[in-house]
Amino acid sequence: MTEELFRTDAYARECEAEVVTVGECGIQLDRTVFYPEGGGQPGDAGVLRYADGHELRVTNTRKGALPGEILHIPAEAADWPKPGTRVTAEIDWARRYRLMRMHTCLHLLSAVIIAPVTGGQVGDGYGRLDFDLPESPDAAEVSEKLNTLIKSDTPVSFRWITDAELDARPELVKTMSVQPPRGAGRIRLVNIEGIDLQPCGGTHLARIGEIGEVSITRIEKKGRQNRRVRLEFPTTAPHAA
Q: What are the CA-CA distances from residue 42 to residues 12, 123, 182 (Å)?
């Protein structure tokens, strides 16, 4: 299993690691700060840096076929490291931070629009959620409520519950199409104090004020009982130091 450092510190940008396996599907490390694609959030990109300074560019990160396996997908077809090689794994932090901001923002959106979530996507500077709604909400009103919440700069915290505890509280799961992963014995809850509480394995901010200003760009009708809300960050959005 790969030690998932991004679970305990989403702000970690790099780590020292050892190559465990190398195969046609990618490179597995014994530990990583790279988030693997899942839950609507893209996988991280970045580099694997060798001791001599040579860098192997990573374009995506995915979960492997085995439980706990995380595969780093290199851009180049050749010059992959051998098992046992020590590397520094470094993510594209600017991109990751934008994804963290958007993912956290979508949690807020699900608290502003009270309806079951039928789908969603976390993008680089943009995102969307689909809601089980017969009528479209007012975009200006949603935008105002969302930005008001962001300005509250509420902290984000995490805790774990068991599968049985989640079964006893089905209202915590807002997504109709995607269920939180089970089988590991525990499930992580993302808590935005007094605003939102739901299971999620993605990377999130420490405080929602880091999201910055956001705009609702469009609300689309995607069926008799489905409304798609799209949002994005302005180009002047903040960056992490």
A: 17, 7, 20
- CATH superfamily for 96-232 is Threonyl-trna Synthetase; Chain A, domain 2 (3.30.980.10)
Segment (H or E) for 105: helix 93-112
**How would you classify the pairing of strands 227-232 and 215-221?**
antiparallel
The DSSP letter of residue 3 is E
| End-to-end CA gap in the chain | 31
Question: The whole model's pTM is what?
Answer: 0.91
Question: 186-226, pLDDT tens digit by residue?
Answer: 888 999 999 999 999 899 999 999 999 999 999 999 988 89
Residues 6 or more apart whose Cβ sits within 8 Å of residue 184: none
What dotted CATH number matches 3-91? 2.40.30.130
